[in-house]
Design brief:
single chain, 264 residues, alpha/beta, pyruvate-formate lyase- activating enzyme, 3-stranded mixed sheet, 10 helices, 18% strand, globular, binds iron/sulfur cluster
Length: 264
């Protein structure tokens, strides 16, 4: 892994659509690319992690002119990837967000987020969503071996929630034919660990990602190759029938385990 220190011209981006999934108004990414290397993610193709050294200074200037709203921290790349342990860019961005009275929604898989509980507890409207594809350590080891295990991530959820942070689980990306059998276990575990909501989104296979992912399937789940070809055909997402079927299953599991199926 290579690290490159860069300076940017601007740091915050306005979301121009109605973000009903994450409820964000802006996005910010302290790092470009991600060293966690999850195999379903297109943030991993470039082995260089770009560290935005002037992120905090820029945010301080940019927030002064913006209408208050919710900032998605780590919209594309994990803001608590390994580099953050030393660089503390995310930590300083959160302090700036707090200073300017904005709210935030952090998306991560890392327990490093717990380091910043002192700041998170003081950001009004702060939310943290922890992504999980399954409760199975075996599946996690195949696709995301460098992030904390599912058990550890559930503990992060519980700890954040106990500290009064609105916390949920994102079943993202939902891997067709691989995780459906464990969805009930996942929703049940999320509820038990005090997650307040479940979000989900199916796996998207855009451009080179499709070939890359199909190679993993050939190696680890050869019997699914044909089913994926059929499900995705020439599209980057599964067919509508599959998407609405999964939504129905998750909605009913959320009712069963008394957990919201969206952020409210
Ligand atoms: S942690 Fe998130 S951003 Fe990083 S590689 Fe995994 S899916 Fe991609």
């Amino acid at each position: 892994m290579n690290y490159k220190y860069i300076t940017c011209d601007h740091i915050i981006n306005k979301i121009t659509w109605n973000d009903t999934l994450f409820l964000g108004n802006y996005t910010i990414d302290p790092y470009q690319n991600c060293e966690f290397g999850c195999k379903y993610c297109d943030s991993t193709y470039d082995p260089t992690i770009y560290i935005k050294t002037n992120a905090c200074e820029l945010l301080n200037k940019e927030l002064a002119d913006l209408e208050k709203g919710c900032i998605i921290v780590g919209s594309v790349h994990d803001p608590y990837q390994k580099a953050e342990e030393k660089q503390k860019i995310t930590r300083n961005l959160l302090k700036t967000i707090q200073k300017h009275g904005f709210s935030c929604h952090i998306l991560t898989k890392s327990n490093l987020v717990l380091r910043d509980l002192d700041i998170l507890s003081n950001i009004s409207g702060c939310m943290v969503t922890i992504s999980m594809i399954s409760t199975s350590g075996n599946i996690s080891n195949i696709f995301e071996e460098q992030v904390p295990s599912p058990k550890e991530r559930l503990k992060i959820v519980e700890k954040l929630s106990q500290h009064g942070i609105k916390t949920g689980v994102a079943v993202m990306p939902l891997l067709p034919f691989i995780v459906e059998g464990q969805l009930e276990q996942l929703i049940k575990a999320a509820s038990k660990h005090k997650a307040q909501y479940i979000l989900h989104k199916h796996l998207e296979l855009k451009g080179d990602q499709k070939k890359f992912f199909m190679d993993i399937l050939k190696e680890s789940f050869p019997s699914l190759v044909e089913k994926y070809e059929e499900l995705y055909q020439d599209n980057y997402m599964p067919n509508d029938e599959y998407i609405s079927g999964i939504k129905d299953i998750l909605d009913s599991l959320c009712v069963k385990y008394n957990i919201k199926n969206m952020i409210t």
